[in-house]
Structures are given as structure tokens and as C-alpha cells.
Specification:
The protein is of the alpha+beta class. It has six helices and 13 strands. Helix 5 packs across helix 6. 26% of the residues are buried.
């Protein structure tokens, strides 16, 4: 699976997501075009009437956002800014497979010799119209511990450092809208592992995880389903411009 992700250059796909946020769950269906290097992305969410365009060649710190509802006009926003991150488990910088797979692989590697106790293969099954390897991770020792915030640390920097889920920290500590520096010396709860349980459906043909479900101590925390994968087919550079036919910027 890691090798398959490394060999991705371009991909088109549809994604359905389910994410637990501050008040209930957020559900989205998204159409995505992605070039990995240099990173370029076009995202369209018909339900939320939203289009996003990011081109690292044009700007590494801004993306175009067009809501087809009020206020209607095209905005330039920071992918890591408050407006773009609100009620989102991940930013557009993490869209695709590379971030998710690398993060989960690193998180599992923390357990080293213990991983065999928590990881199981449940056979080949049908999922989203594909034959998939079903792999399940479950750790009953999942919990939280106290962490003392150091100088100039954010929830995100702590999550990266400790290889845990950013939004899970926010949920446990009610830090949903805190994207700046945390108070030095304050104590927050950190999950002991990336999750309590994870279920992966890995497409037998592409060896990509076309379904990922993450659980915490409460239940389902996030789920991502991938459909209509079009892998490593050239995407015209014009498709990552505002003026491309059919876009609404």
C-alpha cells in the first residue's frame, strides 16, 4: 500500500466523508482532481455548492475558494487558516492518500513488536464495487494521558510530533477553533495511539485504501470512502486554472 501511494503522480476520484465535529457529524461528497508534485488540486462539493482550486506553482500559501451561495464572490484563503479549517478534520494539504497512509504507517510503527497483537487480516471482500483486502487494527489499551504544552506549540504541531490525530486532540480538549499557539504550561489530553480501531479496505488491483474508518473510545470518528479512481492519467495544466471550462471562479 505504501509503495502504491509513492507511485501516485495524478489521480481523479470521488470521495464521501463522514467526520464527527463539535455538534454531530459532517457529511460531504466531493469530486477531486489531484497532481502530487508540484501539488495542484481542484475540489468541487456540489452539495455545499463549493469549489476550491490550489496550485503550488501559483501560490504555496493561498487557494481560490468559490462558494456558490452568499457571499458568492471568489476568495483567496490560506489552506491552514481558520476559515478553511473550521469543522474539518484535515486541510486540503492532506487530501489524497499520501498523508493518510504515511501518518497511519508511522503511527502503527510506534507499537513495533506489539503491532501483531492489534492488526488482523480478515480476507478479501467486496467494497465499493472492488475486491479488497480487509485489514483491521484494534487496540483496547487506547486512552489519553496528560501533556504539558511547551512554548509556541499548537494542536497541529503536537499532533505531528506525537503522531496522533489532530482533530481527536481538539475533540477531547474542546479546542475546535483554536489554531494558534496554546498557553505554555497548560495541560491537555493526548490520545495514547492514533485511534482505538481502524478498518481499511485495500483495493486488490491498485493496492490503495479505498475505505478508511477511524474509531475513538466513543465510536466512529471519521470515515472516508473513495470511488471512481482514475490513477496516473495525465491531467491538463489548464484544469488547474480559474478559467477552465465548467469552473465557476
Amino acid at each position: 500500500m505504501m509503495d502504491s501511494v509513492k507511485n501516485l503522480h495524478t489521480i481523479r476520484f470521488n470521495m464521501k466523508s463522514l467526520e464527527r465535529i463539535e455538534h454531530g457529524f459532517s457529511v460531504a461528497s466531493t469530486q477531486i482532481k489531484l497532481q502530487l508534485s508540484p501539488r495542484k488540486l481542484y475540489l468541487k462539493n456540489p452539495e455545499k455548492k463549493l469549489e476550491i482550486l490550489y496550485d503550488a506553482d501559483h501560490s504555496k500559501t493561498k487557494c481560490y475558494v468559490k462558494p456558490h451561495i452568499f457571499p458568492y464572490f471568489t476568495m483567496q484563503l490560506e489552506p491552514n487558516g481558520n476559515l478553511m479549517r473550521k469543522d474539518q478534520h484535515f486541510t486540503i494539504n492532506e487530501v489524497g492518500f499520501d498523508f493518510a497512509v504515511k501518518t497511519i504507517a508511522m503511527a502503527l510503527s510506534k507499537e513495533k513488536n506489539e503491532i501483531a497483537k492489534h492488526l488482523s487480516f480478515a480476507g478479501v471482500v467486496d467494497k465499493n464495487g472492488m475486491k479488497c483486502h480487509l485489514v483491521i487494527y484494534e487496540n483496547t489499551n487506547f486512552g489519553y494521558y496528560d501533556y504539558t504544552v511547551k512554548s509556541k506549540e499548537t494542536v497541529t504541531s503536537i499532533a505531528y510530533k506525537l503522531i496522533v490525530n489532530d482533530y481527536m486532540i481538539r475533540t477531547k480538549n474542546k479546542l475546535y477553533d483554536n489554531y494558534g499557539y496554546l498557553k505554555t504550561g497548560s495541560v491537555i489530553k493526548i490520545p495514547t495511539f492514533y485511534c482505538k480501531k481502524a478498518v481499511f479496505y485495500i483495493d486488490e488491483k491498485s493496492m490503495l485504501p479505498i475505505s478508511i474508518t477511524i474509531y475513538d473510545e466513543v465510536g466512529i470518528f471519521e470515515n472516508y470512502e473513495y470511488y471512481n479512481l482514475d490513477i496516473n492519467k495525465p491531467i491538463d495544466a489548464k484544469e488547474f486554472t480559474k478559467s477552465y471550462k465548467g469552473y465557476g471562479f
